[in-house]
Amino acid sequence: MRYSPLKLALAASLATLAGPALADDWRVLAQFDDRPEGLVADGDGGLFASLFASGRIVRIGADGTVTDIGSIASATGGAAGSTIGIDFDGDDTIYVAFAGHSDLYPWPNDPNVADLACSDSTVLSTGLYAVTVSTGAVAPVATRADGYGFCYTDDPVVMPDGAVLVSDLSRAAIWRIEPDTGAATLWSDDPLFDPGARPLSGFGVGPNGIALGADGASVYAVTGGNPMLVRIPLNEDGSAGAGSMVTYGYDNLDGLEVGPDGAFYLTEAFRSEVWRVAPDAASREQIGAPAGAPLGGPASLAFLGDSLCVTNLDFFGMLPPEHANTVVCKSGVLPQ
């Protein structure tokens, strides 16, 4: 997994096209002093977001007003790490994926040591955390300190039975965690998640964004190493079936949301693109790119009314200051 000079130069040139002028009905909803990563609807006309470096969890109103909910730093002991994907149970709990950083093997700053970073036994904070919205209280649900082999926990999704599935970017797998007991099992390490020795994107990573399908019968995941949308059917007992490829032909995919229209919405982190894939995957439409939108390393997605909103993780720091560290939204994506 290498960041080639050519790829970095290409990303930089694309990002500069985002410029000060907004186009294609994209607008900046909120801006922070840290990079936003996770995003989910709050069920009350706003959004929840996670901030990558500080661990803060915030609420964003429809008018862009930001209020703090809490910070998972209170439960990690201030451990250095990445606060990544989030999901909301629709009641009072936000589940947050956190990946602790290794002092010995500085992944993700050095992408070539991802496997070694996973084996650093001194990293204990990686795992899933629960934030209580009404009080701001934070507690670990399941972490490496409990003996689980999490590597880079990335994106959670709350299942209908209350369990939480969490993608593991570097282990190339999806975990199932029971919030009531903290028990964790490896739910799927499907071969389609494996980036292999020569990943097509050049990034040696597996599943990133995950989401429950519109019919509730499958879980979908986007992959970064060999970029594709993967379907994992749910067996009757809740276990994972064999994966199948739904669509491919992208670069390093990051975020995934299944819209109320049943379509799949994807973010591509390196080329800074946002895509809509039809429910039957028969067609796709690019609905955002740096040439016409303030996008830089878009990560998670969520809907706000008829608008699709995304977090600009901008991992390579290529957005201009007025668009950096933002949640941006495109209006009119969903019919009203």
UniProtKB/TrEMBL annotation:
Signal peptide limits? 1-23
Q: Which PANTHER family match?
A: BLR2277 PROTEIN, LIPOPROTEIN-RELATED
Species assigned in the record: Maritimibacter fusiformis
UniProt keyword Signal present: yes
Please indicate if the UniProt record lists ATP-binding as a keyword: no
Q: Which InterPro entries match?
A: 6-blade_b-propeller_TolB-like, SMP-30/CGR1_Lactonase
Name recorded for this polypeptide = SMP-30/Gluconolactonase/LRE-like region domain-containing protein
Name the keywords, alphabetized: Signal
Query: Which branch of life, at top level?
Result: Bacteria
